[in-house]
Amino acid sequence: MTANDIITIPNPLLRERSKRVGHIDAEVQELAAGMISATLDWEAGREHEFGAALAAVQIAKPHRVVVIRNDFDHKEDQSFSVFINPEIVKAEGEPAEELEGCLSVKDIYGSVARYPKVKIKALNLDGRPVRVTATGFLARVFQHEIDHTNGIVFVDRIEDPHKLFRLESNGKFTPVNPDKAPAQS
Ligand code: NI
């Protein structure tokens, strides 16, 4: 799988709920491997961006599988963890806004409110139950990816158009909806 396999809005599949995985077999393992290679290929083609995670629906496979980078701070660490049927069992703290992006929303970033701490339950690729207590950016990533499994894209959570920004080719953000210039007198 490559960056070309990643679907983008307005593809209607991105607004569909993904199906639970009933049985973890070679097909699911192949799916996860394909998601990881597509994410790394996407990142290789984009100078200013980091491929933090992907949900299976983003390669047009609507199954509840997400892959998340193990190290968000070092691009050279290209390892991922796989979470199958991930669920938030508890969200804690006051939601806070930070800029986030998505491989399925080209060049657009937006300020989205997310809980600072979430407890996750999922299965790993061996079919064993895993529990994660995530804080900070990892908590944000889990909420973003679990949204994908429920057919929600981050822009769906942004009502104020002033909270949307475009990533320019120089790596800087500019407002998508700049306020009109004041009227000339
Ligand atoms: Ni996304």
- Structural Rg: 17 Å
How many distinct beta strands? 9
Across the major sheet, the strand order is: 1-2-3-6-7
Order of helices and strands: HEEEEEEEHEE
Question: What is the name of the CATH class?
Answer: Alpha Beta
Given as residue ranges, the uncertain stretches (5+ residues, pLDDT < 50) are none
Name given to the CATH architecture = Alpha-Beta Complex
Number of helices: 2
CATH fold annotation: Peptide Deformylase
Largest sheet: 5 strands, antiparallel
Relative helix content: 10-25%
Question: What is the strand and helix layout of this fold?
Answer:
Layout: H1 26-44, E1 53-55, E2 65-69, E3 80-92, E4 96-102, E5 105-114, E6 117-123, E7 129-135, H2 136-149, E8 164-167, E9 173-175
Antiparallel strand pairs: 1-2, 2-3, 3-6, 4-5, 5-8, 6-7, 8-9
In short:
With 185 residues, the protein is an alpha+beta fold.
Task: Walk me through what this model shows.
- The chain is of the alpha+beta class and 185 residues long.
- The chain has one domain: Peptide Deformylase.
- 18% of the residues lie in helices and 32% in strands.
- The strands form two sheets. It has a five-stranded antiparallel sheet. Strands 4-5-8-9 form a four-stranded antiparallel sheet.
- The radius of gyration is 17 Å and the shape is globular.
- It starts with 25 loop residues before the first helix and ends in a 10-residue tail after the last strand.
- The relative contact order is 0.18.
- The mean pLDDT is 95.
- Nickel (II) ion binds next to helix 2.
